[in-house]
Amino acid sequence: MKHLLQDLKVNINDKIYIKDPESSDLGKRIIEHSILMIQEIGFESFTFKKLGEKIGSNESSIYRYFENKHKLLLYLTSWYWGWLEYQLVFATNSISNPEEKLKRAIEIITQTIKEDSSFSHINEVLLNKIVINEYSKSYLTKEVDHENKEGYFLIYKRLVTRLKEMIHEVDKKYKYPSSLASTIIEGALHQHFLKEHFATITDCSEDVSPSTYFIDLVFKSLK
Amino acid sequence: MKHLLQDLKVNINDKIYIKDPESSDLGKRIIEHSILMIQEIGFESFTFKKLGEKIGSNESSIYRYFENKHKLLLYLTSWYWGWLEYQLVFATNSISNPEEKLKRAIEIITQTIKEDSSFSHINEVLLNKIVINEYSKSYLTKEVDHENKEGYFLIYKRLVTRLKEMIHEVDKKYKYPSSLASTIIEGALHQHFLKEHFATITDCSEDVSPSTYFIDLVFKSLK
DNA sequence: TATACTATGATAGTAATACTATTATATTTG
DNA sequence: CAAATATAATAGTATTACTATCATAGTATA
Questions:
Q1: Does some domain include residue B69?
Q2: C12 C1' – B175 CA distance, angstroms?
């Protein structure tokens, strides 16, 4: 799979950035080190000034790529969802049995990302952790309706819709395929968070993965 | 019910505040107007200075009640979960049939808060909206483990645990009662958010309430 | 009734944040 | 080689998130 993904470019809404970070060396360093830094100190403490110092560049140069750190977060999380969508399509495309296909899809979506894949400057393991800890902040804002109209959440919504369609294929009479799909995707992030920080209110642990729980939940609901 | 609740005081961890806002007129105005203001302009734009201006008081006086706006958010959301816990216990206490009890519990937890109840200075309708839009931000921080140890999320975790126990009473063999309980509570907030802002990825709407969806989901999973 | 204590308010000040603007310099391209 | 472009350096602004100090009004107490 690695070499196939090598040349894949996740297509991100170009209103999210001012200058495409994939188009230059500095841009790639911004992406690479913003992931490391946000994971390390958290999104609230992260600033363009600190990032500039880290990559031996200047605050003002980073502002030429992204309007502000909120847009950078939208970029990173869009990239993540786009990457996950690719994993999903790639892994399920050849499966014809709808139950098997859905099961595999849930596994992909709820898994803990374990190893680095082929994008040299993007660490998906850390990016997954950032999504768990920060994704909600990208849409829980007063600007969400406007940003949604601009298409900033398109990749995420497309992923939910893909999952919804797989659910529908398994049970055409099930009444809440969209809600179930959005519950799986958001709920998986939440269970991963609970596992790390509020272990008493989840059954997920070293031994029980969110995948196991969600597969059980979904297949009991269908048919 | 109203007069019964009248004298109820939600018991909040006293490390969350410096001075109990329930103990003075200024304190109550801080709570009342912070709810109005956070709902109006969002938590990010909300500042103690603006709040001071609104209530004809001073920034420095508000700092005598809360260390910072994060702690104020913890206070407001703890109050909300405490209030909801009371609603839950009150409404389900007399029900002996476990299925009925659980069904009623899910209804309480996933409902849209519709009318003002008896707390004169606290608007639960707006507070519910704040919880939907801002609650995640209170725990998606780098300080979460420390604050959890201090007991800042106790009421929330207790509510999840109560729901978990009700699930367990319905199906003692079900393997994921905690995860299911936390999924319902977090998922309900999420579905309410989607209904308002991302209607295409939910089945919840004017006609279909999150309650309907979650009751279906839960009872199909049990027994 | 004097005084002491408490709550609140007013003012000032600080470091950091989140930018914008301008100018300088290095690199690429035509 | 000139021109265009990218990046870096520097400076400056308004706002935020506080802390500290002092003044004052009201209440409790001796």
A1: yes
A2: 61
- Which chain B residue's Cα is nearest to A208? B176
**What are the residues whose beta carbons fall under 8 Å from the beta carbon of B109, sequence distance 6 or more?**
B84, B88, B159, B163, B184, B185, B188
CATH of the domain at B165: 1.10.357.10
Q: Among residues 106-135 of chain A, which lie with CB inside 8 Å of chain B? A: 133-134
Q: Any CB–CB contact under 8 A between A180 and chain B?
A: yes
pLDDT tens, position by position, B112-169: 998 766 667 899 999 999 999 999 999 999 999 999 999 999 999 999 999 999 999 9
On chain B, the residues whose CB falls within 8 A of the CB of A131 are: none
Is B141 inside any structural domain? yes
Domain that residue B66 falls in = 13-221
CA dist A175 to B189, B213, B214, Å? 20, 8, 12
The residue among B137, B191, B201, B218 with the most chain A CBs within 10 A of its CB, best to mutate, is B201
Please check whether residue B44 lies inside any domain of the structure.
yes
Q: Looking at residue A54, what is its pLDDT?
A: 95
DSSP labels, chain A: -HHHHTT------TTS-SS-GGGSHHHHHHHHHHHHHHHHH-TTT--HHHHHHHTT--HHHHTTT-SSHHHHHHHHHHHHHHHHHHHHHHHHTT--SHHHHHHHHHHHHHSPP-S--S-TT--HHHHHHHHHHHHHHHHSSTTHHHHHHTTTTHHHHHHHHHHHHHHHHH-TT-S-HHHHHHHHHHHHHHHHHHHHH-GGG-S-SSSS-HHHHHHHHHHHH--
Structure confidence by residue, pLDDT tens digits, B17-40: 999 999 999 999 999 999 999 999
For chain B, how many structural domains are there in total? 1
Q: How many CB atoms are closer than 10 A to CB B184?
A: 24
| Measured CA A76 to C1' C24 distance, in angstroms | 32
